[in-house]
Structures
1.
Amino acid sequence: MKLFWAVISLLAITSLQAEEINKKYETNENCNACHMEISKRWATSRHSNSHFSKNDLFKKSLEFMVRKNPTLILDEVKVECAQCHNPRITKKTVEDKDKYLLLMGIEENKKEMDRVLNTKNMQNGINCVVCHNIDEIHLDKSKGSQGMNTVKFGEQGTMFGPFDDAVSPYHKTAQRAHFMTDEPTLCFVCHYSTPNKHGVEVYATGKEYDATGSNEGCKDCHMSEKYEGFASNYSQGGGKPKPRMVREHRFASVDNSNIMINYIDVKSSTKRGKFILTLKNKSPHAIPTGYGLREIILHVDYFDKTDKKVGEDRKVLETRWVDAKGEETIPHLAASKSKDTRLQGKATQDYEFDVPQGADYAKYTFSYRLINEKMAKELGVTDPFFLKEYIFSERRIHLN
């Protein structure tokens, strides 16, 4: 019996051992002194909130997956999803022996797993050391996005970027091609495509991009176009920092940018009793894209000459997912899609509405939700950030 517990104890320790991130590089706080503006913009991004402790939708989705599949344990799913959500996690997989130890309630193993999943670096999200320590990228699109398994990280203490003459007193610097071009290779490490166990594509932003034949990349939209600024406040010899052509590190989303206004044109017209909204998608991927429960809502209210409301209508651009029983679910558990009405990349689409009798004018809103209301309730999402309807365009249009 003593030998049994000795073996269990040894497994509990060795099964989780891996290289730790040096405290000097574990959070963006240590980068602020030289990269204050970049760090400030990054802090507004979803990259800074990729850890389950800061992302209610992510956390509730993980818990939902475990509730629906009794063969899974929560820590196992957290580690699997960390391949992209937290690529510097020090553990790549939860093996059967790990599950066995956790299910047995071995306290040492539970504490160590909790530590691995909640390090400062993990909680800091997709931070500086995640992207700028990537030395090589080996993306096999046939396998889709594999996060940390697609890259080779460099020596800790070396930061890679687009410049061949960058100098820092705090770390080594080196130039790498994946930072120099508009190619989306670095982004596709996590944002190309991901199938679930049924072979259903959960995320396919990169595949959608490839389908358009675009060469625009992701950076102009989700960071910014290049502008003259400073990549670093540091300068050798006490002089002024060197001006660079840089981009904002905001990783634009619906909450921290005008990306929907900038890349979706909305026009209205009337024809033979129809009110028509025309959407032109200027981006090289479908809208909405990314997490599969997002939706775009076109809502129209109709009023007569006395401002009395005489009707309303709406169309939703979305994907709906069902499990093997035909019940609505999240993409990660879906056996198939029940519908997909999204606007494809570089596409233009007319959406027609019947004008009610007596209508003199219409008011329309073009809005975006990060998860549809039904599934938000099903998952138990409570964070207002995910429940909010983000309105990007509102107009009043005379119909006569």
2.
Amino acid sequence: MTIYYSLTFMLLASEMVTFCLLVAPLPYSLKKRLFTFLTESKIVAKVAYGLKISFIFVAILFADALQRMFRVTAESDLARHNKQGMLSDIRTDTGIAARKFYAQRNVYLTGFCLFLSLVLTRTFYIILDLIHTQEEYAKLKKATASSSRSTGAQSEDQAKEIAALKKEVEKAQKQQRDFEILKKQSAQNNAEYDRLATELNDLSGNKSNKRVD
């Protein structure tokens, strides 16, 4: 394996390890710190920029390996067609089979490296959006809890005010009933006083008439 395909294999292995770390069931706090570091670190940004350039070279290698695989496959089919009915050369067949194997291996290696890079990018942003959604949900839950507590406190205050108003109304009604009772008693007392005064006047008038006779 040439050096650039060896580097491609190392890149593929690092992508597999990174993918396993991304999908690992880490605690929320640890995952949040990890993704915050990955999104805000300048060193990670420079590494990501270098990886983008390397993926461009991997794409070029993929196109070259794909072209070689098609050419070797065509040569293998042509050699098999030309050797029908003739004794096959083991060395030639082995060489063609080896070239075909290497060409397919390079295609698979570079192709999976490119595919996994797309999967990693999409997975990273999905998890990042999930973390942001969880943060917004936590904030909304906290705000709802605080508003419910304040609403509960307000309802308790309103209940106390209503109870106090009911007591005042009952007190006023009691005073009103007492006033009506006193009013009736006063009217009765006035009527009784008038009656007694009338009787007294009548008695006084009768006595004075008897003295004149």
3.
Amino acid sequence: MLLDFFPSRTLTIYLAKMFAVRIVAVLAMLVLVLLALDMLGKTGDILAVPGNGDAEVWLYASLRAPQLVARFLPYSVLLATIITLAGLNQNSEVISMKAAGLSAHQILAPLLLIGLVVAAISFAFNERIVTRATATLKVWEDVEYAAIPQDREARSNVYFNDGNDVLMGATLSGRGAETTLTDVMFYERDDGGMITRQISAERATFASPGWRMEDASAFNVASAQTQQLGSVVVAPGVEIAQIELRRVDPDAQGLAELSESIEALQGAGRRTGELEAKWWHKISGPLSAVLMPLLGAVAGFGLARSGQLFARAVIGMALGFAYFVVDNAALAMGSFGGYPPLLAAWAPFFLFMLVGETVLVRTEE
């Protein structure tokens, strides 16, 4: 009985293949155009670094392309829906299918099935490829397109507070007890926030507690004198847990890794609403590919000869783009604490599913 929801096998394959081809074509067009425009602004910065050449330009393209694919795949499904259904309507194929006894939901069933397949592929693609490309690209951008650090989780320009004092480093690399800071500056400040002494070193490692600065030199503000300290331990209040918490980047982490980061932050008493919303959105985001055929379905129904086909296509596009606007706004509200994380990630999806279903039913009536 479940298979009765779909039209005949031949018609299901025909509609599914037509829809899939258009998704791929629209996505390829969008990614190629947007990647070319993006590289126009970035190629100069990449080639300005001594030693960089064509290989680095292509490396940037390979890291940026997965991000564009992940971002514009739902838009591609929406545009492919409108193109497919408008074409079927224009050629009276929708009328033929309805005359054969098919409902609007049965006509859309193959498109919804392809949307579900696209959502599954999108989720796996985001988890396995996009997160890694994002992590590598951010590290590369932090070093201004110079040589990519071997530690892809390295961070640039980090700082930590130890009471009134501040520990700063140009780069942060390594994990656990092997964590290393380079180009380190430690500022001792009085109760008024004024710097009393500045200690600098090329390198600092975790000393449990504190951070051991090697070949350090100190500048005393009051006497304006510099003193060689050798090896010195500073910032005993800056723990490894505090270092690890600064690494959390939801766009560069998969579901499992982000779950561990959220638990660590909650254990440290940190606010995790924004990260929890991003966690849920890693699931609801790819599922928007299932929603797009429903929102764009208005373009496929109604008489083409009435002259309203273009207006219906515009309405379908407006509904689809309105979903993305509301989705981004809900995530922003979740980040500020205005919405609970679960509501921020899922409310737009279910809201527009009801809107799309309502429009489809009213159109069919």
4.
Amino acid sequence: MDLAKISRTESLNKVPEVTLAFWVIKILSTTVGETGADYLAVHVGLGTVLTDFITLTLLVAALTIQLRTSRHVPWIYWLTVVLVSIVGTQITDALTDGMEVSLYVSTSAFGAALAATFAVWYAVERTLSIHTIMTLRRESFYWAAILCTFALGTAAGDLATEALGLGFNMGVIIFGAMIASVTMAYVLGANAVLCFWLAYILTRPLGASLGDLLSQSREYGGMGLGSIYTSIVFLTLITILVAFLSLDQRQAQSSSTKF
């Protein structure tokens, strides 16, 4: 095994290694997407159209920076994920609240869009692995899939907790159990790529349910912490974890240059 080649491949990969920290930040990001979108839409007072325009503009800017970098930079990557989470939530909310599209329809549509993205991605690249995101085309497929997973996860989460009346508590329990099942399947030898994307989709409704549970008022089944405080706490945790990963990455690169 060529360790130098493996090390070089890892350094060129534009997305982070899938670790426990990755999943923790992912769930925190999805929660911020839910509470952040609610805060911007309800409390800031800019109006839905202007708020959506601002967040979409920020996402385009962050994604442009991410695509133009030559390596994985933790703060750029996770800033893009947080913004994708917010925009994905806003897309679903716009369809549900603004256009009165049924959550059954939007969930099915986003599921079909994600399946189509994966189909084209695989047809072109012959892989859906996240361990070799080293070209602009492959990374473009990756981010298209990420946006679809956030929109699908938001719609599916709202469908479960609101349309089906399961509530936020049951949403956290159900989606948490589904993620645990996917993890167990992976441990038992199931396809790693399939397990990753299933878990990635499921963390979105888990994070949304957790965000609603913490931020919504008690009369609606939440804990009443409010969207702004929930968002601040989770953004602070994300910042700390990303700073730690950035430091760890710099130390690893410094160590590798000594050999």
